[in-house]
Fold:
Amino acid sequence: MQQQTVQQTAEENNRSTVVAPLDPVQKPFVWIGAILSLLLFITIVSVTTFTQGVLFLIGLAFGLVLLHARFGFTSAFRRLISVGNVQGLQAHMLMLAVATTLFAIILGTGFSFTGNAPQGYVFPVGISVVFGSFIFGIGMQLGSGCASGTLYTVGGGKSSMILTLLGFIGGSVLGAYHIGFWRETPTLPAISLAESTGFGYFGGWILQLAIFLGIYGITVKVARKKNPPKMAPLKTTTGLKKLWRGAWPLLLAAVILGVLNAITLAVRGNPWGITSAFALWGSKFIQMFGVDVANWTYWSNNSAPLNQTVLADSTSVMNFGIILGAFIAASFQGNFKPGKIKPGIGAASIIGGVLMGYGARLAFGCNIGAYFGGIASFSLHGWVWMIMALAGTYLALFLRPMFGMKNPNPKDSIC
Structure:
């Protein structure tokens, strides 16, 4: 009996959700989110194309999944480096394995729902990627969220993330302004582990699955050796209500995110991305004050978005969807409760946002476009991004306490 109890306790400790009483549904907010989503969908389809509307709906789905599972990139890296908790990274490996499998099929066959030829995110590896991903790693730990984390927590009601988002936009504009300099720094060509190696997409798929399994095996050994505190389980409920009320298991969310990214690739012709929209929003804003952003190197080859509605930008409409999807999910859970921002947290949020915005422009993307989309596209730069962002996370752990931010501790019961 005692052995059974110990085994049951161990299984419960590995769960990412636990059945517990939930806060009441915030019905007015649910209705506001639903109505705004419907109106925005109708507006997008009316002024642009139906495909843009579909991408908005995909963005809604991303927001729902991210918030329901509290799926983190920032927290996963922080828990890994600080105490050796591997739950988040293991979820990443599952997500990447699902996406890589589907990307291999889509990119290898040219499959598309809309006729847009699919192209992955395969970019050069150079000083800009190394430095950009490193400072992004610092920034996401100070800003308490990555690109996707910033959007879904803004939608979920975390007040400080509004400052992170504003810093993110400012840093993205600054990175776009400086991109001409960084493109002159030493770099290797774009390297695809499928096409550049001669392995093809099937061989590249086998190679990456082997890497994912290798990393997973290492995480198992790390967890056994360090016995780190587990992630705090999220409250959920039972039955069908779990779909809209309770939290979702982390690994289930990983699979869904991988599938949604593949659907995005097959719909718009490119994987999921976030931060290019921030550069667009900020550039359009300062353009209203007479700044000639169209002559910047970043916009010189494609300045059309600067003169169009942001609803014509697929990344922007997906970002709007993420925010609204998270808002609706948080309202169903009764968790949309913005609070006060402490000065230290506010300062860290702005600094972190600027570092992430600047770093994302240099590194050809963020945790989504470079890490998730890059690796799923078989790009070497995605793996470099991961390594350097982890290095930036390590440094950031020494900086966070300066702003009154806590790091996980091995003696904690949960992290």
In short: Confidence is low (pLDDT under 50) at residues 1-12. Residues 24-231+238-403 form one domain.
